[in-house]
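dude i think i finally got it to work??
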Amino acid sequence: MWLRRIEIVPFVSIGGVTLHHRHVEAPGTSRPIVFINSLGTDFRIWDDVVARLAGEMPMLVYDKRGHGLSDFGGGVRSIDDHVDDLDALIDHFGFDKVVLFGLSVGGMIAQRLYARHPECVEALILSDTAHKIGTAESWNTRIATVERDGIEAIAEGIMKVWFTPQFHAKRAADLAGCCNMLTRQALPGYIGTCMAVRDADFTDSARRIAVPTLCIVGDQDGSTPPDLVRSLAGMIPGARFEVIRDAAHIPCIEQPKALVTLIRDFVASLPEGKSAHG
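look at this
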């Protein structure tokens, strides 16, 4: 029986930034899928998804600059800083074409990487994200609060949009763990990424996406509501739109089984690609 191989050394230094990652290999010639985290999380949010898909396709998860165990480096001034890191990470592993799965700000990073390097993206899965998220006023208010009082000051409100009332009621330990993950993120990385999202508007570039795209949203997402994600799907030629029931902003934690079903179906619909390593 084939056993999956997980990268033993989970750190790589790219352009002076040390990135924490996990690379899970798979047999055959399946295309690799790269998962990009949401704001205020680390790559552990993908654990259940990766466990369910292990052996079916190569996977790469990583902590964004200034999140989890990755460096802050020279700072985060725009989405392009995160794109630079991801682009270099893909090159480090020698991937030819990849499927990008971006959650929330991760979806914005995926959109921007495609705009800059469409030749390396075979398909996009954009979950609980949009071409533009929030307003300058809403982001500036959040940034000011966090600068003054820390991430703890907004944690309760964030948990309400990350997870459904049912999750709050029935999965108290998981909720506490996710709250810990949020509040223990490095303040400069969190604030810098807030600023990057505030200043990003990919309305025009979304209309130029020309690869198969799946847009997903939790039916109770209070951060990027279904109508917003539906509007993104409407901009992308031929995009597929799916709603996951009984999920809010982080379906990979709340409804991993339903999410994995969508991933499998979408990846199976793609044309046969090259080997994971080119």
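The radius of gyration is 17 Å.
im so relieved honestly
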